[in-house]
Design a protein that fits this description.
heterodimer, A: 164 residues, mainly alpha, Arc Repressor Mutant, subunit A, 8 helices, B: alpha/beta, 2 domains, four-stranded mixed sheet, elongated
Chain lengths: 164, 201
Amino acid sequence: MKRPFEEIVTEHGATVLRVCRAVLARPDADDAWSETFLAALRAYPELPADANVQAWLVTIAHRKAIDAVRAESRRPRPVAEPPDRRTAALEVEKADDLWAALRALPPRQREAVALHHVAGFPYAEVAARTGGSTDAARRAAADGIAALRRRLTSPHNSSEGATQ
Amino acid sequence: MSDTDTTLATLTEVSDDTRARLHEQLVAAAAADALLDVAYRIVDSPLGPLLVAATERGLVRLAYQREDHEAVLHTLAERVSPRLLHAPRQLDDAARQLGDYFAGHRREFGLPLDLRLSRGFRRQVLEHLVTIGYGQRESYAAVASLTGHPKAIRAVGSACATNPIPIIVPCHRVLRSDGSLGGYVGGLAAKQALLRLEGAG
């Protein structure tokens, strides 16, 4: 028996968004989220009843996000727009810094952190999706978290003093 | 590890506003791609929250809270399509007409109906019920005769009991021959309230 798709969105929406944001900046991450659930909705009636829905969704999300990154790298780079300081709340800014730091990691580390720490997959599952061994996935995630911590605590990137 | 944990906690936050915005985008995209097989919303009413659901053909289900809305959605997923989303805007018209009806400003519903959840004789009964006007009453026996099966009084009763779109398909206007209420999917108090509303109007 197939559950209403609404329940699938409620249960897994946040996880899928985190996977998209780990790879893409807004609003591309939001677009990737919508494309993921639209593709999932299309295929949902044919999904086997015993399928792992979260793994299925994360696989689609990961593919959509990677596609978007490739499309982006083929586009000529536009001039960066300054963020709108009047509307951006401090909390959002901090979270954006964090996502930006995550996206700045080398691809293997970024994917390992996204899939293990953000999406919650065990390392063996991460390795199955990114290629390479389970140990390599574990090392990439650990290196990624260490780099993330260095980046966020370095005085250059800290927003503590500047925003107060 | 603690600052790493804090870092990761921030990574896992998704605000309710963001969820709502993305959900709305998904519903719009699904509707545009004809992938929204069943849209539903909850409409507040004097008889409690009502679940209303529609397909591309029309209104397919109205359910009282006592029918268990979650169970109703699961049945819709199974019997109509699992491509089912909370899509309030798709049901704005139904919500407005129900509001008007309960306020005593509407005597007839102008909504397309999808009767696919009802088959055979039961469906024939429902098609007759929509011809019973506002404030009118008919007996189970009369409905049986008028649908060409004068002995099928019990079957008329079960057709009313399993009416997938109560209120809009007005099974509350069907009573026993002696004038007593009989049964009602929304409970007898709801049946009485509807009859009183229509009597006053």
